[in-house]
Amino acid sequence: MAGGGCPSAGRDKKLSGEPGIMSQMGKTRNLVLGLVTLVMAGSLTACDDGRAGAEGAAKQLASSLSALDVGQIAVDGKDAAAANDELKAVFEGLDAKPSVQSGDVKLDGDTATFPLSYSWNIGSAKWDYSSEATLKKSGDKWAVQWGPALLAPQLSEGETLSVKTVPAQRGQILGAGDAPIVEDRPVFRVGVDKTKIPAEQADASARAMAALLGLDAEEYANQVAASGPQAFVEGLVLRAYTADITEAKIKAIPGGASILDSMALAPTRTFARALLGSVGQASAEQIEKSNGALRAGDTTGTGGLQQKYDSLLRGKDGVEVIASSEAKSEGETPGTKVFFSSLPAPGTTLKTTLDLKLQQLAEETLAGVGPASAIVALRPSTGAVLAAASGPGSNGYNTAMLGQYAPGSTFKIVDSLAMFRNGATPDSKVECPSTLTVDGRTFKNAEGYPETSLGSVPLIDAFAHSCNTAFINARDTVSQDQLESAAQALGVAVEAPKLGADAFLGSVPGAAEGTGHAASMIGQGKVLFSPLSAAIMAASVGNGAPVSPQLVLNADAAQNSSPGATPTESGSASPSSASAAAIAAPASTKPITKEEATALSSMMRAVVTSGHAGFLAQVPGAPVGAKTGTAEFGNDDPPKTHAWIVATHGDLAVAVFVEDGGLGATTSGPLLKTFLTAAG
């Protein structure tokens, strides 16, 4: 009685025994069992129509597609291994795995159809679509009917999918007055176009191009070999052709090509490079650390502000998923069609306080300096960083903002403020012997110190001529923690919440004894400044109140930007006990007052009018106040020295530093004069 492939119900054998009641009971029981069998048979026929098997097969297909592995499922009319190879080839270029869900199964005899919902994360975009799948029943198994449309609608035989990045317009970096610093400028992308040469020519062309561009031939040849037959393999980006690299020389190489493009660039190759960073193709390391935000071929920032604010500047790239097919006959162009696209979102402009004229002037002033060097210029009234230039001897390091060096006698500005707070005035008498011994260590004045300023002299005179022994003598009345407090009162070694860039803001230990305390009084020992922190100190004197520097004006817009690199210890600098962000000034620290600043300004002016920076008296415009500094370092005999000078000039404060520079007055001083005179 059962049908449709359902198992038949079993029948009881005829009951044996005595006739009568037992016979009647047997007939009744057989009737009941027969009815039950009929009902069960009808039920199984209705349920077992193959739906459970088809739904299981549908879910298994969706799961296998999600894993990009269909090698274990039944495929109708095709080898499962061949289908698996085809699956991987189609999706390999997407460099991702989809999430695939099967929908409601519709049965029609031995055929089952259902939708497959695909969801891909392609870069920062999401690509969702549905395809239709068909199962055929063969015996007791359901097998999928394989075809390219199963993987994506309109996908044809032989086509493969790949992702093309649609670059977002990178945000500009602006300077003071919104003057463009980094903006799109024309460039030439030079390399080998593999579509223009036979495969066997690629290696020779790559090596010839590497020789022309000055690249590592083996490395570039490997890049060309690893690229697909349709690839243009970039070797170098040029702002302009040169005498050595001309368009004619590029095209003379088989497959050589030069593509006109644009790139976010500063006015010159070296302009504020250590501060701004650069932009180029993401490295393998950057891609790995980006958590999927970067893909091969993407453009990203490296170093400086370009890296720190990369996510703000980069915007969000668009993507295109394209299907490509190989040419079916010789001379036929391979076909492509777009399956999905998302529009790019342009990056945000980064606004800074950099003055293009002063930055360029600072770099030109340092152009001939061999050792690491820096010029930092601030506007005391606002704290705006107008220039932060690191010379060619810095070899790309941001000496201006990250350098950690003993500030030498420029630190006597801090000493003097501490002495004022203990009752001294510029006219107070101090003792300035030619030498002074502290705990067995002998300190002396700089070579050429005038004998007329030895002995008992006014503090202003000792400051103007930079008497080391006079300030070391003050150690008995100025404690180390008072030095720390005075430095913080001048904006040094405290946080700079408006700066918006990585910087070393100074380190002045709050405890030191004996020779350590004595060395601190002349800006050595464990006292460390960057050229930026030295400029902050001078700016606070010029402003009559502590100056907090500001470089990036819209840093708040980049709360989700990638973190900047941790500032590292510079060249010859000793390790610092303070972090790169410095420390917050204690609530008990008293900021410098107008009266204190006026007294310090008079002493800085005396350095120009009667001290060893008289050459600055010729600078036109507002009177210049200055303080030189020379700090010994290393183990050479005689020791090498850092050369410093800081100055105020109207609403301008400047610090000039040369790492291995002799005396501050004779090395950094002339650089400062050149800068201030041209700055106007």
Automatic annotation (TrEMBL):
UniProt-listed InterPro entries: Beta-lactam/transpept (IPR050515), Beta-lactam/transpept-like (IPR012338), Beta-lactam_class-D_AS (IPR002137), MecA_N (IPR007887), NTF2-like_dom_sf (IPR032710), PBP_dimer (IPR005311), PBP_dimer_sf (IPR036138), PCN-bd_Tpept (IPR001460)
Database matches in SUPFAM superfamilies: beta-lactamase/transpeptidase-like, NTF2-like, Penicillin binding protein dimerisation domain
BP GO terms, sorted: antibiotic catabolic process; cell wall organization; response to antibiotic
Subcellular locations according to the entry: Membrane
Enzyme class, UniProt record, top EC level: hydrolase
Keyword Membrane carried by entry: yes
Gene3D superfamilies, sorted: DD-peptidase/beta-lactamase superfamily, Penicillin-binding protein 2a (Domain 2)
Any one GO molecular-function label of the UniProt entry: beta-lactamase activity
Keyword Magnesium included in the entry's annotation: no
NTF2-like N-terminal transpeptidase domain: residues covered: 80-158
GO CC aspect terms: plasma membrane
Region (Disordered): 1-22, 558-589
Keywords, alphabetical: Antibiotic resistance, Hydrolase, Membrane, Signal
Penicillin-binding protein transpeptidase domain segment(s): 374-674
Catalyzed reactions per annotation: a beta-lactam + H2O = a substituted beta-amino acid
EC nos: 3.5.2.6
Family statement: Belongs to the class-D beta-lactamase family.
Protein's recorded name: Beta-lactamase
Organism: Paenarthrobacter nitroguajacolicus (Arthrobacter nitroguajacolicus)
Taxonomic lineage of the native organism: Bacteria, Bacillati, Actinomycetota, Actinomycetes, Micrococcales
